[in-house]
């Protein structure tokens, strides 16, 4: 086991900066996932750890050693890729043990390691099968076992589940978590799938355009995204955003306003462009939001399309000014639309006028220019109604 440290890693190709000054540390035994859209530099960053790519600038450390210029085989890492290249003419045992034979371990040691690895990935009893007798998931487990037998300090996995069908992917997610628990080995995992990143990792490193946006535990990225990019990328369906302007006593967007004291939003002043972010689950039908201690003033909306998902229903809302207009292509990111998720027993239908409110404790504010987060959650201004006792006394 070993920790991994990247120090100011930049990788330039002729006209592309694939990785742009990325520094991060993965602790010994930690499971860290690099996540971001296609082309954001995830694989290239991992390849600098593997030794498959030499960075243009910066250093890579594994354990206490600088390994920037070491060959892959001398780094104590084992890799599992999306495309599982099993040798078709070799059975499972031979496929798993192939790398060990190259390293001239004796037969007894090889058998011991292969059986142990097969046990971890639950392939016992299948060691004499040929690859074409295996399912996609079993083949992927062979590839993982092949990495395990090498007893690496660090596992590097690049989209290892991408070619599996959806159900198997979810199953393999839990298997990888179990594997991590059993082996305790440091794992760096690459995926473009934010759900995969959220469910498996101790921490996720969100990348965009070669730059590290945030590295934090999944729920921190979800609840306290560092910027608008992370806010929009993590979470499905995506967070709603509404661009607005900070005024003397609130934030005004095209279609609604949110009361707030600009003095409580650090780094901006009245007149600045501020973007409000709210997740679909934090939008509520006004008449059903009685339990929430702090909500915005009601916002007039008209329901458009409903998407019943079984455990929840996605309700696409057109805000008052827009009612009647057709939907833009990306509904959740346009200021004049709002996506709300409600429980299936909620009484709501298409083309219904209603009022919605936003949970103030779950609102996010971003600097519209830089995208940086300004604030997560707005504390309700204390305006106790007559007859109510204030907690502060
Ligand atoms: P990701 O894994 O996030 O999809 P990559 O790390 O593969 O992204 O690529 C990051 C960027 O670097 C992309 O724009 C890609 O086209 C570019 N890139 C990657 N490898 C090379 C290469 N060998 N030559 C030129 N450009 C490359």
Automatic annotation (TrEMBL):
Keywords: ATP-binding, Nucleotide-binding, Transport. GO terms for biological process: carbohydrate transport. GO terms for molecular function: ABC-type transporter activity; ATP binding; ATP hydrolysis activity. Its main location: membrane. Part of the ABC transporter complex XacGHIJK involved in the uptake of xylose and arabinose. Responsible for energy coupling to the transport system. This is ABC-type D-xylose/L-arabinose transporter. The keyword Transport applies. The keyword Nucleotide-binding applies. PANTHER family: MALTODEXTRIN IMPORT ATP-BINDING PROTEIN MSMX (PTHR43875), OSMOPROTECTIVE COMPOUNDS UPTAKE ATP-BINDING PROTEIN GGTA (PTHR43875:SF1). Belongs to the ABC transporter superfamily. Carbohydrate uptake transporter-1 (CUT1) (TC 3.A.1.1) family. Gene3D superfamilies: 2.40.50.100, Nucleic acid-binding proteins, P-loop containing nucleotide triphosphate hydrolases. It catalyses: L-arabinose(out) + ATP + H2O = L-arabinose(in) + ADP + phosphate + H(+); D-xylose(out) + ATP + H2O = D-xylose(in) + ADP + phosphate + H(+). Its EC number is 7.5.2.13. It comes from Natronobacterium haloterrestre (Halobiforma haloterrestris). CDD domains: ABC_MalK_N. It is found in: Cell membrane. Residues 4-234 form the ABC transporter domain. InterPro entries: AAA+_ATPase, ABC_transporter-like_ATP-bd, ABC_transporter-like_CS, ABC_transpr_MalK-like, ABC_transpr_MalK/UgpC-like, Mo/tungstate-bd_C_term_dom, NA-bd_OB-fold, OB_MalK-like. It comes from the Archaea. It is an enzyme of class 7 (translocase).
């Amino acid at each position: 086991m070993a920790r991994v440290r990247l120090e100011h890693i930049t990788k330039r190709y002729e006209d592309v900066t694939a990785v742009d000054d990325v520094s991060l540390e993965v602790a010994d035994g930690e499971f860290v996932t690099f996540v971001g859209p296609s082309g954001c530099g995830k694989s290239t960053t991992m390849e600098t750890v593997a030794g498959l790519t030499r960075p243009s600038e910066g250093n890579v450390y594994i354990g206490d050693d600088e390994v920037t210029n070491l060959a892959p085989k001398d780094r104590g890492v084992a890799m599992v890729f999306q495309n599982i290249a099993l040798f078709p003419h070799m059975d499972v045992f031979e496929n798993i043990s192939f790398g060990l034979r190259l390293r001239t371990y004796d037969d007894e040691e090889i058998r011991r390691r292969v059986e142990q690895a097969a046990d971890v990935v639950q392939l016992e009893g299948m060691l004499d099968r040929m690859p074409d007798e295996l399912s996609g998931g079993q083949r992927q487990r062979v590839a993982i076992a092949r990495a395990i037998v090498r007893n690496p300090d660090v596992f590097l996995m690049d989209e290892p589940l991408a070619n599996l069908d959806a159900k198997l992917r979810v199953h393999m997610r839990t298997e990888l978590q179990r594997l991590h628990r059993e082996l305790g080995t440091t794992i760096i995992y690459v995926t473009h799938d934010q759900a995969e990143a959220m469910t498996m990792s101790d921490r996720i490193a969100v990348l965009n355009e070669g730059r590290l946006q945030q590295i934090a535990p999944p729920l921190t990225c979800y609840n306290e995204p560092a910027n608008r990019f992370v806010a929009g990328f993590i979470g499905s369906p995506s967070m709603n955003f509404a661009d607005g302007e900070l005024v003397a006593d609130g934030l005004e967007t095209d279609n609604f306003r949110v009361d707030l004291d600009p003095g409580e939003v650090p780094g901006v002043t009245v007149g600045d462009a501020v973007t409000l972010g709210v997740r679909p689950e934090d939008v509520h039908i006004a008449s059903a939001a009685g339990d929430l201690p702090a909500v915005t003033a009601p916002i007039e909306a008209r329901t458009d399309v409903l998407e019943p998902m079984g455990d929840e229903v996605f309700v696409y809302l057109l805000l008052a000014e827009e009612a009647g207009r057709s939907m833009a292509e990306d509904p959740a990111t346009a200021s004049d639309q709002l996506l709300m998720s409600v429980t299936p027993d909620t009484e709501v239908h298409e083309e219904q006028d209603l009022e919605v409110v936003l949970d103030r404790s779950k609102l996010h504010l971003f600097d519209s220019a830089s995208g940086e987060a300004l604030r997560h959650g707005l504390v309700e201004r204390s305006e106790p109604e007559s007859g109510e006792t204030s907690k502060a006394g």
